[in-house]
Amino acid sequence: MWNETIDAHRRSVREAILDSAWTLATEHGVLSVTMTQVAERAGIGRATLYKYFPDVEAILAAQHQRHVDSHLARLIEIRDQHTKADQRLRSAVEHYANICHHRAQHGTEELAALLHRGHQVDHAQQHLATLFEELIADAAAAGHLRNDVAPAELTTYCLHALGAAGNLRAQAAVKRLVAVTLDGLGFSPSSAH
Amino acid sequence: MWNETIDAHRRSVREAILDSAWTLATEHGVLSVTMTQVAERAGIGRATLYKYFPDVEAILAAQHQRHVDSHLARLIEIRDQHTKADQRLRSAVEHYANICHHRAQHGTEELAALLHRGHQVDHAQQHLATLFEELIADAAAAGHLRNDVAPAELTTYCLHALGAAGNLRAQAAVKRLVAVTLDGLGFSPSSAH
């Protein structure tokens, strides 16, 4: 009982730290966030903060990881709602375009780039690429995609192209981006719809 | 004569500052660069450095601007080597893919993202988008591209998709990416080649 209470407490402090650092980064820019500001905003002492994280970059990396993990979980759910390779790929592509569309408003993309620059290994981002590569390889094997370019390269293309959704305002534009990107993949679904 | 000498001196100090900050950012990560380190590496005093730039972010922004300006100048040269809309677009797309391929090794992309996060206005990047949008609009008007998506949206797609070149190792893969991206644009050149 007691251990559970401590665990719950630690989790909630951790959440508060991640949320605080993220809010500060969004409001004032990543470069300006300090450990003192994070502690203050999270309502804890600096000494406590250092028991959780060594520096701002580690906090932002953890925050980013939390984001990507949740996106990944949702993508897996969506994939598993379909059984056909073409439907699976299309659903995942549409969902990822929407993620990119929304996250641009929260600056997650830029933060991800910064963390990569800082040589943080981003396992969840790698999982995302692996998930898409499997979907693309399956769709290619079922004859729904061009076969002159390997699935790994098509995956890199696809994820970058969908990233353009971050620069688009209208939801209709995101749908058009999905269509354009799928055309690049040579996507031909089995039943016209 | 005297003024020219002073100008030349100022330019060379400025270049040394930009190069030093960039090297430090590449070696140790953008977040760790300090004004003291930049001054030391550039071989000038801190007081002198502050006469040129107010902070590290301003130095990195100027360095980034220098990069993008040179890419832009080269793209305009390449465009002007051709007269037909389809050839112009194809050449520019190929060249930009190569820029993305090379700059990934230098971390420029990540820095650009960071600077955007910091709300730096990146005029040269905007010029790049404008240049591509003109090429795409011209090629579309000449019937070489799909006409169900506006040139502005196709430009956003195109620049993002080509950014995937940064994740590709082989030059042959970059060529395939160009082909895939052009297929997304519905590119059909006038003379088959």
Automatic annotation (TrEMBL), chains A, B:
DNA-binding region in chain numbering: 34-53
Domain of life: Bacteria
Name of the protein this chain belongs to: TetR/AcrR family transcriptional regulator
Provenance organism: Kribbella sancticallisti
Domain HTH tetR-type per the UniProt entry, residue ranges: 11-71
InterPro entries registered for this protein in UniProt: Homeodomain-like_sf, HTH-type_TetR-like_transc_reg, HTH_TetR, Tet_transcr_reg_TetR-rel_C_sf, TetR_SbtR-like_C
The UniProt record lists the keyword Mitochondrion: no
PROSITE patterns reported in the protein's UniProt record: HTH_TETR_2
Keyword list, A-Z: DNA-binding, Transcription, Transcription regulation
The UniProt record lists the keyword Protein transport: no
Pfam families tied to this protein: TetR_C_43 (PF21597), TetR_N (PF00440)
